[in-house]
Amino acid sequence: MRRAAIGSVLTAFVLCTISFHARAQDASEKEIERYRAMISDPMSNPGFLAVDRGEILWSEKRGSKNVALEGCDLGLGAGKLEGAFAKLPRYFKDADKVMDLEQRLLWCMQNIQGLDTKDVIARRFSGPGRASDMEDLVAYIANKSNGMKIDVQLGHPKEMEMAAVGEALFFRRGGVMDFACATCHAEEGKRIRLQGLPDLAKAGKQPQETMGSWPTYRVSQGALRTMQHRLWDCYRQQRWPVPEYASDSLTALTVFLNKQALGGEINVPSIKR
Amino acid sequence: MKSILKTAALAFVLAAGTVALPLTASAQTAKNAVIKQPDPAVIDAYLKSTFGKAPPEWQARIEPDEALKTCNQFRNDVPSAEADKIIQRELAKVVFPADGNLLGDWKEGKKIANNGRGGQFSDDEKTVNGGNCYACHQLELKEVSYGTLGPSLNSYGKDRKFDPAEAKQAYTKIYNSHAVVACSNMPRFGANKFLTEKQIKDLVALLFDPESPVNQ
Fold first, then answer.
1. Closest Cα of chain A to B202: distance in Å?
2. Is there a contact between B144 and A247 if contact means CB atoms under 8 Å apart?
């Protein structure tokens, strides 16, 4: 039942996107808004299937220690999920490192479950017929911060370092096109082709709305995506080398972006183009 | 100059525990200010953790050259003395066609302007690089899918009365955007060896051929 409803709404959404012309942009934007509101309904946003799968994964016993992830501390105490995502990335004493949710989950898989994460990392981005544990877990855990405000932790010197490095990386130009994040995301109301670009250089509404809406179900990819995937795709457009999954520069950028977005309300998984 | 930067970076690192963030925020609003940056060695360590497994030639691409070093320092808002230095240095890199003919084939130019492929880690070696001009510029009015990071180039040659000096300036701009505007957000297509001389001539024709749809 749930699936059939999703199917027809999606078809309508896709048809609507195909007939999208700049001349009819305003009308189309309104239509897309309408469908977006419709599919943001938890009963029909396919992102919530990932939430359900994540819930099962969270309590599944795995690894050489045959235990569930429930013993994993995401910052608020072992197994405590409510509001944990809102305060990430943050410094973890046991790892002596600032980690985003994905880095932390991998750490817990290795250290609490004794799981070899090679396969999990190979499936970090889902594809046709290939589910991603990471996307599902992030959807489940992030969803448990809905309605809360982005409250990234900046008290520890390593958290401050992350924010400062993230800011430097945001403005650092390079690659065959001399692009930085700031080339595409430092002015309001700009677009590439027809895709609107959020201004993430100025703290406030645009970063708040952006960061409060990830992870998201991306209709164009038919998959739930996390910030790791978004940054991977932006670095591709930036003509930079492939960024290593769950590595420090991506966490630094996420800290910086969440600092720009402090106070923004989390409502995930959202649904986007 | 360099030593000032070094001390600034040092001060930053020392202050990191207390006032680092307000410092950066205020520096951002000051005009032509050197932006306080974390210790370069710290940034390098982050870059290494994220891009360190990429092939060496890919890592070399994100090593900022002289121009980008200055642009990064000032977040593109360079003081005029620095801007002049960049323009002189970048101008020297522009190679003009040996026969002096700057106008290629606008029909080819149109394809290049529309092609956004090339240079991405998802591209294979056989990918023909495109100029991706429509990502940032409006050109012919019929193409409604254009970006707005750069100004509209519609009617570009016609508005300039097809003046050869203007065409030469456009060739220069496309070959090396920083030779015209220091720290331009536009790629340096020729200087970075992303487009060939022939491709750049075809793009100049797209802008300056009276037959080009850009000038209709």
1. 19
2. no
By the 8 A CB rule, do A85 and A214 touch?
Answer: no
Contact A139, A269 (CB under 8 A): yes
> What's the N-to-C CA distance of chain A in angstroms?
24
Q: Are strands A223-225 and A191-192 parallel, antiparallel or unpaired?
A: unpaired
Is A234 marked active-site?
yes
Block residue for tokens 């808002």:
B77
Give pLDDT tens digits for B56-66.
999 999 999 99
Q: How far is the alpha carbon of A252 from chain B, nearest alpha carbon, in Å?
A: 8
Output the CA angle A233-A165-A203, nearest 5 degrees: 75
In this structure, what token pair is assigned to residue B196? 């060939």
pLDDT beyond 70 at B91: yes
Q: What is the ipTM, given to two decimal places?
A: 0.89
Q: How many residues does chain A have?
A: 273
Which residues of chain A neighbour B42 with C-beta distances below 8 Å?
Answer: 161, 165
| Contact in structure between A28 and A19 (CB atoms under 8 Å) | yes
Contact (CB<8Å) A249/B47: yes
Q: Are A181 and A240 spatial neighbours (Cβ–Cβ below 8 Å)?
A: no
How much is the pLDDT for A31?
A: 60
Nearest residue of chain B to residue A160 (CA atoms):
B16
pTM equals 0.89
